[in-house]
Design a protein that fits this description.
Elements lengths: L20 H13 L5 E3 L2 H8 L3 H11 L16 E4 L2 E4 L10 H18 L15 H12 L19 H10 L5 H9 L3 H19 L7 H4 L11 H9 L4 H12 L3 H5 L1
Antiparallel strand pairs: 1-3, 2-3
Helix pairs in contact: 1-2, 1-3, 2-3, 6-8, 8-10
């Protein structure tokens, strides 16, 4: 099992660190076992075994991670940390814990290098001076003649524009251009034509669920052939999201929001 976890000092400053030790252990276990898309396979029993905590603690942790957390440092999804997925769970803010992309690190390095290079350039030649007689002319000539840059300085690599097939572009636009486009294309190429058509057909229903309050998954995770989330009955999910709560549930929710001890009242 390959993890994509980055543990940073901020994790012990987050609101999750105020929870009991078993809750914290389940959270670290989720981070350590999620894949590149934030997906963790297994139910509460599986997580309890992996985290080496009682089943009751794993169930309590999963219920807590699905609830809004006003004290969370990441307000996305109202502070919710996980959402149920077919056969397992999705860590909603998993991008915060992923390892750095080597290409992104290289791009950042090249930006810093260009900044240093530009700040070290001599002042521009006055309009009346002869460019040939200027000291920088000999440097430019040597650079153009050898095809190399200034000695000791790395040269930027030429960038290549990546092309995307029209059917993928249409699906990417319909989904709202949300996610890592190159990775999504890799998954798209592994889909059969019938699966691609099913993905496009399922997008409107899924986005309706997102509008109704479901956390939106990135496109590459949504079309991952291992997860096949487009095959879910999104009409049924939308019905659950929009179904009015019973009066008792609304009353309990109001009591929770005001900090009243429900158990004390019911007794």
């Amino acid at each position: 099992m390959s993890g994509f976890t980055k543990l940073v000092p901020e994790i012990i400053q987050s609101s999750i660190w105020n929870e009991p030790s078993d809750i914290r252990i389940v959270w670290i276990t989720l981070l350590a076992t999620k894949d590149a898309d934030g997906y963790v396979r297994g139910d509460a029993k599986t997580l309890a075994r992996l985290a080496n905590v009682p089943l009751e603690s794993a169930v309590e942790a999963l219920e807590k991670f699905q609830q809004p957390d006003p004290g969370s440092h990441t307000p996305d999804n109202e502070g919710r940390r996980v959402a149920p997925a077919p056969g397992g769970w999705v860590v909603l803010n998993h991008e915060l814990y992923r390892v750095r992309d080597p290409q992104a690190e290289h791009a950042e390095y090249m930006r810093a290098w260009r900044l240093r290079r530009d700040s070290a350039k001599p002042d521009a030649v006055n309009a009346g001076d002869s460019q040939v007689n200027h000291p920088s002319a000999s440097v430019s000539a040597s650079v153009s003649g050898t095809g190399e840059g200034v000695q000791g300085e790395p040269q930027p690599k030429p960038t290549r524009q990546r092309s995307y097939p029209p059917d993928f572009e249409a699906a990417w636009e319909a989904f709202g251009r949300y996610g890592a486009k190159p990775r999504a294309l890799d998954y798209w190429r592994h889909l059969a034509e019938t699966d691609r058509q099913a993905v496009v057909a399922a997008i409107p229903g899924y986005l309706a669920c997102v509008t109704a309050g479901r956390a939106k998954k990135q496109f590459e995770g949504w079309i991952n052939p291992q997860n096949r989330l487009w095959e879910m009955d999104w009409a049924a999910v939308l019905g659950e999201l929009t179904r009015p709560l019973p009066a008792r549930a609304v009353e309990n929710r109001q009591r929770i929001s005001t900090g009243i001890d429900i158990m004390a009242i019911e007794k």
